[in-house]
Prior knowledge:
Chain A starts with 15 loop residues before the first helix and ends with a helix.
Amino acid sequence: MKTIVKHISINKGMTVNELVNQMSNSGVFGAGRISKAVDIFESMAKDKNCMVFLGQAGAMVPGGMKNILIDMLKNKYIDVFVTTGATLTHDMAESIGYKHFRGLSDIDDSKLNKKKIVRIYDSFMPNEVYIGMENFFKEHFDELSKAKTTKEFLWLVGKLLPNNQSSILKTAYQNKIPIFCPALSDSGIGLMIWGQSLRKKGLNLNIFDDLNEIINLSWSSKKTGVIYIGGGVPKNYIQQAMQFSKSADYAIQISTDIPFFGGSSGADLREGISWGKLNKNAEYANVICDATIALPLIYAALKERI
Amino acid sequence: MKTIVKHISINKGMTVNELVNQMSNSGVFGAGRISKAVDIFESMAKDKNCMVFLGQAGAMVPGGMKNILIDMLKNKYIDVFVTTGATLTHDMAESIGYKHFRGLSDIDDSKLNKKKIVRIYDSFMPNEVYIGMENFFKEHFDELSKAKTTKEFLWLVGKLLPNNQSSILKTAYQNKIPIFCPALSDSGIGLMIWGQSLRKKGLNLNIFDDLNEIINLSWSSKKTGVIYIGGGVPKNYIQQAMQFSKSADYAIQISTDIPFFGGSSGADLREGISWGKLNKNAEYANVICDATIALPLIYAALKERI
Amino acid sequence: MKTIVKHISINKGMTVNELVNQMSNSGVFGAGRISKAVDIFESMAKDKNCMVFLGQAGAMVPGGMKNILIDMLKNKYIDVFVTTGATLTHDMAESIGYKHFRGLSDIDDSKLNKKKIVRIYDSFMPNEVYIGMENFFKEHFDELSKAKTTKEFLWLVGKLLPNNQSSILKTAYQNKIPIFCPALSDSGIGLMIWGQSLRKKGLNLNIFDDLNEIINLSWSSKKTGVIYIGGGVPKNYIQQAMQFSKSADYAIQISTDIPFFGGSSGADLREGISWGKLNKNAEYANVICDATIALPLIYAALKERI
Amino acid sequence: MKTIVKHISINKGMTVNELVNQMSNSGVFGAGRISKAVDIFESMAKDKNCMVFLGQAGAMVPGGMKNILIDMLKNKYIDVFVTTGATLTHDMAESIGYKHFRGLSDIDDSKLNKKKIVRIYDSFMPNEVYIGMENFFKEHFDELSKAKTTKEFLWLVGKLLPNNQSSILKTAYQNKIPIFCPALSDSGIGLMIWGQSLRKKGLNLNIFDDLNEIINLSWSSKKTGVIYIGGGVPKNYIQQAMQFSKSADYAIQISTDIPFFGGSSGADLREGISWGKLNKNAEYANVICDATIALPLIYAALKERI
């Protein structure tokens, strides 16, 4: 009982980091966790010995978070990126010129279906993106089929994408950030590969070589840090790689899932200490919040600090 | 499908409202709801014909939100305030000089009990606040017992509180903001009144006169707006008063509760249209987020705009 | 690491308690908490020295749980009942012959409003219940206005209600179960009292005399147990009464709210140990589940055991 | 407004299906969704033209649900099973004689780490399971490396596992239920394959051949039904396969995740109509509940009916 809860004071025109510093003054509940997450992210980003692994699941591209992810990659705040096939599919659709649109959730889905619009909660995507993607894969499949791992494949896609759109895949390629997608076949991109494989010689990506690569990255790091936006496979895949590191020294999780039901997605980061995934002295913050709110807030504060 | 999801861009040193404007550009998921809430709050605050009712539940004082509530009252963004006995008890404790402290949730509660510290998730409060409160009520009970309604009682408390601390109760009194607490007996303040009533002549507050007053406020308003931070009695009490208004034109709800279980706290604002509590053309936003994150964000953006 | 997680086995035609016993064999996650809750409820119900306090919030009558609550009261598994004005209003509506109906949540609320149907998630109520209630109160207000506390008032209502419908209020009256509603003015019944008070001499219920009564019940008990269905005022009102008992020996909470946001409704029962509300050696179970699923399951198992 | 909410009546010794039928009488909130899920499951199981796809994520084996999954497979209520690597790892550990244990969540994880116990919320697993698994893979790797797809690989594992334990993998093999695990490298089994690959010639599983197989199963079905226990990759992988069916006619989802944050795991089944994954006339139920509570309840009622 040493530190007083100082009430957050709002000043006209305050910057985001000034707001987060106020949250740090209060220090409890969700506001306290947000401010702690920024502190940890700052420590990670400034620690030159630390390799930072970002695991991301959930519809962050349809949700307007693409440029934040790209900015993280460009600034090398992130050294390794693990994501879902859906995120990469949404990113690829935008990379070749399509858009996501603001929609509604209270709507007749059968009407959307007739209009060839697919719904992602209150974000809409035109079905025609799959035509554009198919054309891309038709054109480039010979080159793409040289890839031996998903990481190589995704870098190749990034290389071949046009330059005129902001793109996670292209940014990862250009900045040589390893990008892993352990369940690539579970996505629109996966379906494209399947479609091309039917007509041409197939593509065979060795998922255990990908696994070998991320384990080596973890193994060879002096220190590691993890950031989870959502749970699912990306979180778990990094968590298991951490068992081959000296265990993570920094950890941030932004999720709306909670521990009580036993799943990996909602598990408290502290649980990782029992597994050797997280260092018992690590700094960690479980931010229980919609990532489209928490991530921009955290990232804007971080940028202001660095 | 007219409005593109524009991705949030983070600039170094951006202000909170610049961030919220970026959220407005993306416009979907939680970020979209935050930006919509700010727009609605701005419209309400600028609409001179609109009487704004704030309902607040949850541990906002131990959670560091007291000054935001006070600032709302001082700036008259709020015309009527409905809250819980717990909020008023926590506010009163701080008004007479006590503090809340940053604590831990993973802790042995029986040790806290021995140390006379009570826990509110990861916020701590020393048990001795009740001694200070008892002294206050002993000293002032004769004057306080003149009150005929909870609103009168709470204004009297506000009047009698010392001037040297920031205080919701004093601010409401000084600014003549009606303050309602429909379940005052369910709180530390309620226990204090009970304690004094045992030794002195009792205090009798007519809760139906309070009800009459809030109904009259609602009835006589040209337009009404509602803001709910948390659910519980404060939300429901305002909702039922709205049935006597021309139905609310603006509505914001910040809550972590959700509609699927049928309770009033988690009910979507839209449900109020069936009851005549919300106008069918009203602008409304259901922000599903920890209020200690969403409220400072929304309020800092609002202040910057006005 | 002594007790193995035994997998739940389902047998054709098994009884509910046989299922709960299987959940007891597994013993972890939500299933484990359900089985623990049944064990605790059984202990409470069989402990003749234990006074059991039930706090209930949420739309349990529109949700089809009325008869379970009535059965608990009839069987005296519950000694004291604390609830919301909404529950009592819904109960009263059914007690005078109205019904709730199965509806939809994805529906145009303005159409419902025109049809004079109000929505409680996917349960509907005809607005005309208020006419029936008004007639009841008009007819009986002289007798009702003799009540000095909400408990007396609610028993009087129970006494005066017709006998031909199942009714929480009547059952509580007939079985002399004290029934408290600390925020009665926040409800349809509250509005009825307000309406009658406008034309007749008012009704004045002393809420601090109610508080005195529940504190005396808690104070004078050899042992206490608490059951919370939902949070809100009913939970908190019992929790504060527990500070005047020897602290509760048994506790069950069924809620979809969670601790991380600091509010009383979602607070882990363990937190009560710091306050002296819960005994440090108490048996307690936090069931994080929709009460319309968990309560029938728990109660059917209990009935089978007793 | 045709169907009255009939209150659930509890009878001593009632069977689980009798309870679910009572929930069907009430028909609203979570109870209504549970009863609807049982109805849909029953329709699916009895519809000889319907191929049922089960997607399962979350720690269902450490959570005591293994035998329910096995029973579903044995009874052919399920025709295709998609799951996580974690579920298969936990199943395999038990298949070779290890156990999960009841633990605690409020515990010092660094002490568990020293004792070589890993924590899955309040379920514990001894770290030594990995030794047993490694021995199994060492012994059988030559045979296992003949597999060309994950489905073949998993059937081979099932074939080679001992007969003396109940096992999801063995049951799937024995009953020729196709079993897919799109992110197998993200698991203990994945790590075992990686470990063996380092010393021997590698194993290469063509994930796009798996994708081809599930698409063919979906494509060739007269009718399809889906059951999701948890979200993640298993749900999404089946959802994308449904785009190649005539769209699903039946759908059940048991999840604690909710739609508002935009992710696939919490998405309302209705959203699938816009994608052509779900038939616009399909019967579907979104059960928002801990699966360790909802699944045994639903499955016990189903078994009683069939």
